[in-house]
Design goal:
The chain has 86 residues and is an alpha/beta fold. It has 1 helix and 4 strands; from the N terminus they run ββαββ. The protein has a 4-stranded mixed sheet, covered by helices on one side.
Length: 86
């Protein structure tokens, strides 16, 4: 559940992700759900571009998108358990 908070001097995007479950009741996502998912992802990307700070509370895909590392560039990040490459 992405949340954008804006004050006079700071813009924060919390949990910049959106995801669909691959199957519910053995059914794939409906085309309307897929369309809405893409629409919401576009909004999240727009808000991320304007945010000063990004917060990732945990690593479920509805809270972050590992396929979009550029989303996090040039931002102050508050993320759970930063992983460092060895």
């Amino acid at each position: 559940m992405a949340t954008f908070v804006e004050t006079d001097d700071l813009r924060i995007l919390i949990d910049p992700g959106v995801a669909l479950g691959p199957s519910r009741y053995r059914l794939p996502p409906h085309p309307l759900e897929i369309g809405r998912n893409l629409e919401l992802w576009g909004s999240i990307r727009d808000h991320a571009a304007h945010a000063d700070v990004l917060v990732v509370s945990h690593y479920h895909y509805d809270h972050h998108n590992p396929e979009e590392p550029m989303l996090y560039g040039d931002k102050i990040l508050y993320i759970k358990h930063i992983l460092k490459s060895r």
